[in-house]
């Protein structure tokens, strides 16, 4: 199959328990002119075999098997192989509503939009929450600011015109597997991108207890820093540097709370972020920050915690 209207990209790794729900929800779409690219990122479980079984039953489904390289490389592999007019991502532990592609594509064509943003759901156990994603403005400069507060950077609730990636040479960042999708969306909005908003939710984001985003580690802290370094390079404006600094501060707090920082890193950061700490934190956390600056880390932990 060539030139489908929509390419759906799914980076697959160790999701044998969930992937059927995801793929079945795509097969059930009321819109049928799509291709699904399943990128098996060296899964050690049976995920790759399940992908092959689906591909043997539906010619719209393609499977790419590759050595493990992380979710960012898997997304880029899928994007490089895609042929659709528009692309969207669907993570294999999530699922979508049957009319998602039909309604997003109709909106994209009606508005001649490069990106269509929609709302989404979060699902954990029996609990489902509707997350509204209405931008403050559809102007690309203001949307860029909105990505630092309120607007989710996911590629899963955004239908994107594929040729914009090629036109602006935008790729998923090599070696960064934290907020790699947000990096791409920020990169797109550095350009004059036309956006539409559809006030409906179709995508179900599942809180998978096995997901890498659920475990905080030294590696995740380092990937946060790598992500922030990357966007700092493409957002040189002083105003964005201030927003990036706020995110570095939040990353530092996570690193301290989960004990993944060295004593020297804590000492250095407590000086670097002192003004932010006293301006943004509540009373309990500010008290903890005082102890932190005094080097009384055990006491600081009693106050700086979730």
What are the salient characteristics of this protein?
306 residues, single chain, globular, alpha/beta
Summarize the structure.
By secondary structure, the protein is α/β, with parallel strands linked by helices. 44% of the residues lie in helices and 19% in strands. The protein is globular.
* Global shape: globular
* Number of E-state strands: 9
pLDDT under 50 segments (min length 5)? none
Please describe the biggest sheet, giving its number of strands, its sense, and whether it closes into a barrel: 9 strands, mixed
What structural class do the secondary elements suggest?
alpha/beta
Helix fraction bin: 40-55%
What does this structure look like?
The chain is of the alpha/beta class and 306 residues long. The protein contains 13 helices and nine strands. Helix 7 packs parallel to helix 8 (218-234), helix 8 (218-234) packs antiparallel against helix 9 and helix 12 runs antiparallel to helix 13. The longest helix has 20 residues, at 238-257.
Helix-strand blueprint:
Layout: E1 6-12, H1 19-27, E2 34-41, H2 47-57, E3 61-66, H3 71-81, E4 86-89, E5 95-96, H4 100-111, E6 115-124, E7 127-131, H5 140-146, E8 158-161, H6 163-167, H7 180-188, E9 195-206, H8 218-234, H9 238-257, H10 263-272, H11 274-280, H12 283-293, H13 297-303
Parallel strand pairs: 1-2, 1-4, 2-3, 6-9
Antiparallel strand pairs: 4-8, 5-9, 6-7, 6-8
Helix pairs in contact: 7-8, 8-9, 12-13
């Amino acid at each position: 199959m060539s030139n489908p209207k929509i390419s759906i990209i799914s980076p697959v790794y160790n999701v044998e328990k969930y992937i059927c729900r995801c793929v079945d929800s795509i097969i059930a779409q009321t819109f049928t002119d799509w291709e699904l690219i399943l990128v098996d990122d060296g899964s050690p479980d049976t995920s790759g075999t399940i992908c092959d079984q689906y591909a043997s039953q539906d010619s719209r489904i393609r499977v790419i098997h590759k050595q493990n390289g992380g979710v960012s490389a898997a997304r880029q592999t899928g994007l490089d192989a895609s042929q659709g007019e528009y692309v969207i991502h669907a993570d294999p532990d999530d699922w979508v509503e049957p009319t998602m592609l039909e309604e997003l594509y109709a909106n994209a064509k009606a508005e001649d939009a490069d990106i269509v943003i929609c709302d989404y759901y979060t699902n954990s156990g029996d609990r489902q929450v509707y997350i509204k994603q209405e931008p403050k403005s559809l102007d690309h400069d203001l949307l860029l600011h909105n990505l630092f507060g309120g607007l989710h950077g996911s590629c899963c609730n955004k239908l994107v015109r594929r040729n914009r990636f090629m036109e602006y040479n935008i790729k998923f960042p090599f070696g960064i597997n934290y907020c790699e999708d947000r990096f791409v969306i920020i990169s797109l909005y550095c350009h004059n991108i036309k956006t539409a908003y559809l006030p409906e939710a179709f995508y179900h984001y599942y809180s998978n207890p096995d997901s890498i985003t659920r475990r905080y580690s030294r590696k995740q802290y380092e990937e946060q820093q790598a992500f922030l370094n990357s966007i700092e390079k493409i957002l040189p404006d002083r105003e964005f540097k201030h927003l990036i600094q706020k995110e570095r501060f939040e990353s530092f707090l996570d690193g301290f709370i989960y004990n993944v920082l060295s004593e020297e890193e804590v000492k250095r950061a407590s000086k670097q972020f002192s003004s932010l700490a006293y301006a943004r934190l509540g009373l309990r956390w500010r008290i903890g920050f005082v102890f932190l600056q005094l080097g009384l880390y055990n006491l600081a932990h009693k106050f700086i915690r979730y």
